[in-house]
Amino acid sequence: MLLDDDNVREPYARFNEWFRQQNIEELAAKTNEAEDFFRRTGITFNVYGEAEAAERLIPFDLVPRIMAKAEWELLAEGIEQRVQALNAFLYDIYHDQEIVKAGKVPERLIVGNEAYLPQMEGFRPPGGVYTHIIGTDIVRCGENEFYVLEDNARTPSGVSYMIENRETMMQMFPELFAQNRVRPVETYPHHLRRSLAAVAPPACDGPPTIAVLTPGIHNSAFYEHAFLADQMGVELIEGADAKVIDGRIQMRTTEGYRPIDVLYRRVDDEYLDPEAFKPDSMLGIPGIMEVYKNGGITIANAPGTGIADDKAIYSYMPEIVEFYTGKPALLQNVPTWRCAEEDSLAYVLDNLKDLVVKEVHGSGGYGMLVGPAASTAEREAFAEKLRARPRNYIAQPTLALSTVPILSDQGLAPRHVDLRPFVLVSDKVRIIPGGLTRVALKEGSLVVNSSQGGGTKDTWVLRD
Question: Do 116 and 242 fall within a single domain?
């Protein structure tokens, strides 16, 4: 919000004028009002392994993160380049593996990867699209210095919070939106439905029927599954609600079974089809992979896309982007040490106190070590894990992440943030202007995940 000389950055100018006229106690009451709204609406997430507090509200901060039009356009251009490269990479590794033959990515990272699905080899999804919905985590370390922290190409979550945060802000502070030309995010469900409809399978012979597949009410993101199905005007189903009939996946309705053309699945690969993956899965639809490969249904995101957000693959993304686009990556990676490499492992073990170490398949802030915040005993225990399974980890420096203001008891205070813009890929690339800003509410903390004590805030992209 502030420049080094304490002058207000231009995007925050109008907000700052408004804020200086507000009463801190009244704004704090608005925070409680927002929490009440979230509680009434049912906007919660589940914390696995904590039965005594399984359902929680994600803390919401009412100070928006504001981005200028030029900042966003720079970021959006880099995101579009990256998602196009990701889809090209996925097509290649399940077909000719030209990038492996060119020596740009080691074969062992593909063939030996648990996210790689041999069942997808030689198969082209409808429309040639693998990652229909992507959530790219972005951090900022200086003026217009954006870095990609990770690519969420499996089943990215959080878009419902982006939409509800905006709705809450518009209800509480309509005058702010009258004073600032903010680009909308609430059109996301419309764009999502349109994007999914554009990749209907060959078997579709009319307006495509779309459904959302959820693991059920105990899933941590169930609220979002139900929210998106409702907002798109499509059915929310569980695996038990559908089966193979006449070579199609059909769902049970009040008028009998009806074929599904496009399935937005929020079930992980291994649970998607007990006939193809985990035989004991109760969450998926038996036989769906055979129907999929025969052109009877589109699955979004496609099975096997998880390899694209593997953190070891991530470390090769600059090479991947240039290989498929012919141009240098506009968005850079965070510098990354691959612990599978002997020299890198030695460096990481010698510098654990300064590094962040992550599992290559980890998510949600779990399975990681933040070296500067860890005790000597914690670092020593983690070093043993690294020595035992070095291929399971990558390491990165602790970055000087940018901060944005939050509302504290004393007024505005800086906290570290990241940004998850949401991208839709089908007949074209659609990037929602803004995204979900996640904020580390604890002073000095770098961990923004809601399951680890982080919160969220509305993200504004200004029109001018």
Answer: yes
**Residues 176 and 77 placed together within one structural domain of the fold:** yes
> What would the two tokens of residue 73 be?
């356009």
Q: CATH code at 364?
A: 3.30.1490.270
Query: Which amino acid would we find at residue 211?
Result: A
Contact by Cβ (8 Å): 261, 205: no
Expressed as residue numbers, the domain containing 360 is 335-397
Domain assignment present for 383: yes
Separation between Cα atoms, residue 320 and residue 81, nearest integer Å: 11
What does the DSSP assignment read for 254-283? Answer: TTEEEE-SEEEE-S-HHHH-TTTS-TT-SS
CA neighbor of 155 nearest in space, from 415, 297, 364: 364
Give the CA-trace dihedral at 314, 318, 323, 327, to 10 degrees.
150
**Residues 6+ away with beta carbon under 8 Å from 135:** 152, 156, 157, 158, 159, 420, 421, 422, 423, 435, 436
- Same-domain pairing of 233 and 344: no
* Pairing assessment for the beta strands 248-253 and 256-259 based on DSSP bridges: antiparallel
What is the mean pLDDT of the segment spanning 409-432?
Answer: 93
pLDDT digits (tens, 9 = 90+) for 52-96: 445 667 889 999 999 999 999 999 999 999 999 999 999 999 999
Q: How far is CA 374 from the centre of its chain?
A: 26
Residue that finishes a domain, picked among 397, 417, 450: 397
What single letter denotes the amino acid at residue 318?
Answer: P
- Has residue 1 been placed in a domain? no
Co-location of 290 and 382 in the same domain = no
Question: What count of other Cβ atoms lies within 10 Å of the Cβ of residue 81?
Answer: 20
Mean pLDDT of 145-151: 90
- pLDDT tens digits, residue range 338-352? 998 999 999 999 999
Name residue, tokens 């079974």.
257
As given in the structure block, the two tokens for residue 387 are 């020595």
190 within domain boundaries: yes
Nearest to 360 by CA among 81, 108, 3: 108
Task: Output phi, psi for 212, to 5 deg.
Answer: -110, 125
